[in-house]
Specification:
The complex is a heterodimer of chains A (566) and B (634). Chain A is an alpha/beta fold. Chain A has four domains: 210 residues, Rossmann fold (3-Layer(aba) Sandwich), CATH 3.40.50.720; 86 residues, no CATH class; 137 residues, no CATH class; 84 residues, no CATH class. Chain A has 23 helices and ten strands. The chains are: A alpha/beta (566), B alpha/beta (634).
């Protein structure tokens, strides 16, 4: 059973090589990475650092688009451009050295300016899973982002400018169900016990069992029983405030067995029941984030182009409105607790079985919905883009048994994560650049202070872009012009704020600082953004965790960062 | 672009960088990134040291290494790869332990800045002390999965690495491992001990046979067990012989070994009836009569690693791994031994199968090989992105340190995703030194609670002074006015003392021991606090702040008084400890994401997590959290 031969050998090697990350995002996360095609525009220090962090964990392939030649300062701050490559194609040199990082990743390059390529062959960019662009001027960025927006290709824009790091994500709609929120409640349903749970709890009798069994009854069962007792005494109502919950805890305390001398026995399961009372009494309801998804037009108005996510979301909503009686499908997991293995496993089975039943009801609804939009199992149609990554072509995963167009596995995963499904919609660049945008007013909240936060650098970078449009150079680029550039940049900033209709006073110190940067890319800032940006790309690719929305600014001087929605 | 990169830095910073000499301790995940960042930020003179060699599982993030480098020195290859990219840098590499006496005070004094890129607490403690002794600034860092942190340590200005009590090592009482396991981890620890008993170094602390000294067997039950022990010895005839010698004689016969460890020893355990009054008794297994109906995972998973094995499959793997390991041992010749390694397939197969067989016997859920590897190998997930972020932060802090702007230095914590205040990074003010720190205080003192009748000089030296207090080569004298030398760092000088108990030297409650570590240039006074019995049957307890211990035992006293209410002394102590532990240990939360099996804990995609701390105290030392895992089995 443990002999792996022939073609399995590569899988063993991969499993060993990727062992430490498989423990974070699992095989399905890895499978998603391995089928991803990433395009990097401009092999700057920031660009190559991002790619390094994507090639190491094993994306499928990458393509570098860059029309420039390697310059001296490139070799000085970019690990993947060496001194002896000065004068050669930046795209080629970077691709060669990046490809050395991982023999399983295919690297390719195109020696052409991204803006020109956009004019001549815009569809070139549509073939990628995601495009990462660094150091693009405003004009090129507008073209690129508008094109990719219309093609539904995610775009991550990154820039390191002196001590400032900047990222902006453009993604029309990104749906996640493995969102891994920081705090999650257990889904135990003690407030609305399902019949199988009632039946199981009723089959156990605390009064008549041996003391050994008594101290090894799972706390869930104990709490259920005392809750029923409480309800009997209180008009069928559960304790609903602090005082009442404490009274219930008192009742539980009294249930602990005593030995012959009247000393309390050491019954950890009762202690656990008392400790878990507050948590377990939190009512099971549909989280507001999920409600929002249910009310989203994409959910309420399914059509033949609806994605798997929205079909499942709709099935989930219909489930909640009907057989779920207002509640999501049972998650099917229970926490660790003091108990004998036999009853722990029984209890676990009760929850798991209920979860499977709920998921199969959702599944039926999914099939009905598919049928209703002409994508049923019998309909001759193009398959939907799978939501979960499909197994890689070498057949290394066979987790997914596909029934119809959305696999059972996907539906089960969806149901298990029902409380955590999320939709992220970023605003487009057109919306961001709209001078009447309401988001601009929000900026004021960040800046209208003696000590503005890092949002000030967003405004300054926009002023820098204006400077570039006007003078075709960056402020402070030439050492002997720093002083004149300061006043020019100040003028650009004033105009920008006027256009926005904002009256803000941004200190001159910031303008001097920006001019001193001279658009230089510091390696250590690039290294930081390289890590953060690659992590966001991985979130988007694996659909695990929620990516930032939509602007991120890092201030290396203060080691602070901020996320803004612009 | 015309402006030189250097122009961004002011002149002072530029000069500091050009004239600097820095040390990077560790050439792993953070070390590789850091070396690159330093070279490309213009640091002209860098020394890097690492004891390790390159493993396949490093390649997903330690980008200076390639497949063809596997097995070579990390420090050396890191240097060569970095130079290949940038031949101008001056890099000196050492393939060595930073704890070696070659790296003494003089060595540390050469540097302007020391940066740790380590993965274990022992070395971190040591470098902390060396930097304090040499009065050199130290940047400490660590990552675990998506989380990371960076902090600056400067003598007399900030907290040192050891100013706050470090999370207690997670160990399991011997009798839980040997007699009454209740969780998968207990079986895994046992299986690792079994590996060492059969193939590795003999360590009496890693006995795998039933433990007749179990405190639960006190009184009558104990007597019965002791009687039957004599019987068992007679029957088995192997107790007095080393397990390894016996196994060797059988030719590592799978059936014989299986029946001893999983049948006879279990039957013997069953004879200790007191243990099973309140527990479900274990069920012995017989090699020739294995249950065939125990379902493995029905779920079709192609990867063998992530599928649960049936008992029969476990037995097959057990037999197969035994024979591979036997071959390996024989290859080593006379006196050879194997060291358990999670990346060695037969060793991993052996532990997985043995742990799961034992789990089956005790009715404990079994674990996949993938999960066992995490638990047995103390694996901390690691990815390129987090290391890149942290290494970027380290250099930014380093620049402030070179400018000696310690007031601007920060401890920075990296969250998994922007927190509720939309911050991915949380910079915190550095704490002032703890005046009662037993490492960086002007006259460091520490209290050790122990039973002077039961602790030998050897245990004092190995477990307490070296293991617990992190000294490398201590000299210890009793502060009794006569200057009696108890332990000498000179080999052989105090050998006659090693097996004697402390009370034989007149060491009792309140006696002070003066410890001196020449290498670390560190003097510490240990105050002995004698107690007949320690909580949770610990051998000893190290308390940094004396007021803590007084408060604590006062509390115990109160709880003891409460006994009529029903709490025993043990429970009360436990309760007190639990409360105390909460601050540190409860920060580590394991998140359940995918429940594939009946497993009670631990999933493939979990990680040690810092709950929500925005403050230094709460988020303190993820590295330690990570290490908390390191320490599970060591």
């Amino acid at each position: 059973m443990n002999t792996m031969e022939g073609k399995d050998k590569t899988n063993v090697d991969k499993n060993n090589k990727y062992d430490r990350q498989l423990r974070l995002w699992g095989d399905h996360g890895q499978a998603a990475l391995e089928t991803t095609r990433v395009c990097l525009i401009n092999a700057t220090a920031t660009g190559t650092e991002i790619m390094k962090n994507l090639i190491l964990p094993g994306i499928g392939s990458f393509t570098v688009v860059d029309g420039q030649k390697v310059l001296g300062e490139d070799a000085g701050n970019n690990f993947f451009l060496t001194k002896d490559s000065i004068g050669k194609s930046r795209a080629k040199v970077a691709t060669d050295l990046l490809a050395e990082l991982n023999e399983d990743v295919h690297g390719d390059f195109l020696e052409e300016d991204a803006e020109k390529l956009l004019d001549s062959n815009p569809d070139f960019f549509s073939q990628f899973s995601i495009v990462v662009a660094t150091n693009l001027c405003e004009r090129a960025l507008s073209k690129l982002s508008n094109h990719l927006w219309s093609k539904n290709v995610p775009l991550l824009v990154c820039r390191c400018y002196g001590f400032i790091g900047y990222m902006r994500l453009f993604i029309k709609e990104h749906t996640v169900f493995e969102s891994h929120p920081d705090n999650t409640h257990e889904d135990l349903r003690l407030d609305r016990p399902f019949p199988a749970l009632v039946q199981y709890c009723d089959s156990l009798h605390l009064e008549t069992m041996t003391s050994k069994d008594h101290s090894h009854t799972p706390w869930l069962v104990i709490l259920y029983k005392y809750l029923q007792e409480w309800k009997k005494q209180h008009n069928c109502k559960a304790p609903n405030d602090y005082k009442e919950r404490n009274k219930l805890k008192e009742m539980l305390k009294k249930g602990i067995h005593r030995n012959e001398e009247g000393v309390l026995e050491d019954e950890e399961n009762f202690e656990e029941a008392i400790r878990s009372t507050n948590m377990a009494l939190v009512p099971s309801k549909v989280p507001s984030e999920v409600e929002k998804i249910f009310n989203d037009p994409s959910c309420t108005n399914l059509h033949s182009e609806s994605s798997a996510f929205w079909i499942m979301a709709r099935a989930l909503k219909d489930f909640v409105d009907n057989e779920g009686e207002g509640a999501l499908p049972v998650r099917g997991t229970i926490p660790d607790m003091t108990a004998d293995s036999e009853r722990y496993i029984q209890l676990q089975q009760v929850y798991r079985k209920k979860a499977a039943e709920d998921a199969s009801k959702v599944s039926q609804r999914v099939q009905q919905l598919l049928h209703s939009i002409g994508k049923g199992a019998d309909d001759q149609v193009e398959p939907l883009r799978p939501f979960m990554p499909s197994p890689s072509s070498d057949g290394h995963t066979s987790l997914f048994s596909s029934v119809g167009l959305i696999s059972e596995h996907e539906i089960k995963t969806f149901c298990r994560n029902a409380a955590f499904v999320r939709v992220v919609r970023c605003r487009s660049l057109v919306e961001e650049y709209d001078n009447k945008s309401t988001k601009l007013q929000e900026l004021v909240l960040h800046l209208d202070d003696e000590e503005p936060d890092d949002a000030v650098f967003y405004v300054l970078l926009r002023a820098v872009d204006r400077f570039y449009e006007e003078y075709n150079a960056y402020p402070g680029w030439y050492n002997d012009q720093v002083e004149t550039d300061v006043s020019k940049l100040k003028a650009c900033l004033t105009k920008l704020l006027q256009d926005w209709g904002l009256s803000l006073n941004i200190k001159d110190d910031y303008i001097h600082e920006i001019c001193r940067f001279g658009a230089a890319e510091l390696h250590t800032v690039s290294a930081f953004i390289g890590g953060v940006a690659a992590q966001e790309v991985i979130k988007v690719i694996t659909r695990q965790f929620v990516p930032f929305n939509n602007t991120y600014i890092y201030n290396a001087m203060k080691q602070t960062s901020i996320t803004l929605e612009l | 672009m015309a402006a030189s990169i250097f122009g961004v830095f002011d002149e002072v910073t530029q000069n500091k960088i050009i004239s600097s000499k820095v040390l990077v301790v560790g050439a792993g995940g953070i070390g590789c990134e850091l070396l690159k960042n330093l070279v490309l930020s213009g640091f002209p003179d860098i020394e890097i040291i690492d004891l390790d060699t390159i493993d396949v599982s490093n390649l997903n993030r330690q980008f200076l290494f390639r497949k063809e480098h596997v097995g070579k020195s990390k420090a050396q290859v890191a240097k060569e790869s970095a130079l290949h990219f940038n031949p101008d840098a001056k890099i000196t590499a050492y393939h060595d332990s930073i704890m070696s006496s070659d790296y003494d005070l003089e060595f540390f004094k050469k540097f302007d800045l020391v940066m740790n890129a380590l993965d274990n607490r022992v070395a971190r403690n040591h470098v902390n002390r060396m930097c304090l002794a040499a009065d050199k600034p130290l940047i400490e860092s660590g990552t675990a999965g998506y989380l990371g942190q960076v902090s600056v340590i400067k003598k007399t200005v900030t907290e040192c690495y050891e100013c706050q009590p470090q999370a207690a090592q997670k160990t399991f009482p011997g009798c839980t491992i040997r007699n009454t396991p209740s969780e998968p981890i207990h079986c895994i620890v046992w299986a690792k001990h079994l590996f060492n008993q059969l193939f590795g170094e003999d360590d009496p602390d890693q006995d795998v046979s039933p433990d007749t000294a179990d405190p639960e067997l006190a009184g009558e039950a104990g007597k019965a067990a002791l009687e039957s022990e004599a019987k068992a010895d007679a029957a088995g005839g192997i107790k007095r012989k080393s397990t390894q010698a016996w196994a060797m004689e059988t030719g590592y016969n799978a059936e014989k070994l299986f029946n001893k460890f999983f049948r006879d020893d279990i039957k013997y355990l069953l004879s200790m009836e007191a243990l099973w009054k309140k527990r479900k008794p274990p069920v012995p297994l017989d090699w020739n009569n294995l249950p065939q109906d125990v379902p493995a995972t029905t779920h079709q998973v192609a990867i063998c690693d992530q599928r649960l094995w049936s008992v029969q499959e476990c037995a097959d793997v057990f037999a197969k791994s035994l024979s591979s390991l036997k071959e390996e041992l024989i290859k080593q010749g006379e006196g050879g031994m194997l060291v358990w390694d999670k990346d060695d397939d037969p060793a991993m197969d052996f532990v997985t199968s043995a742990a799961n067989i034992r789990a089956h016997i005790f009715g404990i859920p079994s674990k996949t090989r993938f999960d066992v590897k995490s638990m047995a190998g103390n694996i901390i997930p690691a990815i390129a992105t987090t290391n890149a972020i942290i290494a970027g932060l380290i250099v930014m802090e380093g620049l402030k340190v070179l400018r000696e702007e310690f007031d601007k230095c920060k401890a920075v914590f990296l969250n998994r995703q922007p927190n509720s205040r939309k911050k991915l990074l949380v910079p915190c003010q550095l704490e002032k030194p703890n005046p009662k720190c037993y490492v960086c205080a002007p006259k460091p003192e520490v209290t050790v609670i122990l039973n002077t009748h039961k602790i030998t000089v050897k245990v004092l030296e190995e477990k307490i002074i070296k293991g617990g207090l992190g000294m490398v080569a201590p000299d210890v004298e009793i502060d009794d006015g006569k200057g009696t030398i108890l332990i000498s760092s000179e080999e052989g000088e105090t050998e006659e003392n090693t097996e004697k108990f402390l009370e034989q030297f007149g060491i009792n409650n309140g006696v002070r021991l003066k410890c001196d570590d020449f290498l670390q240039n560190y003097n510490l006074t240990i105050i002995i606090y004698h107690r007949d019995k320690l909580e949770e049957d610990k051998e000893f307890q190290i308390i940094g702040d004396v007021s803590e211990i007084q408060a604590k035992y006062l509390e115990d006293k109160e709880n003891e008084d409460k006994q009529p209410n029903g709490l025993t002394e043990k429970q009360a102590t436990e309760a007190a400890t639990a409360v105390e532990d909460e601050d540190e240990v409860m920060l580590v939360e394991e998140e359940e994401i995918q429940q594939i099996t009946v497993s009670k804990k631990r999933k493939h995609d979990e990680e040690p997590e810092v709950v929500n701390g925005d403050t230094v105290k709460k988020q303190r030392l993820i590295s330690d959290v990570a290490e908390h895992y390191d320490d599970i089995i060591s």
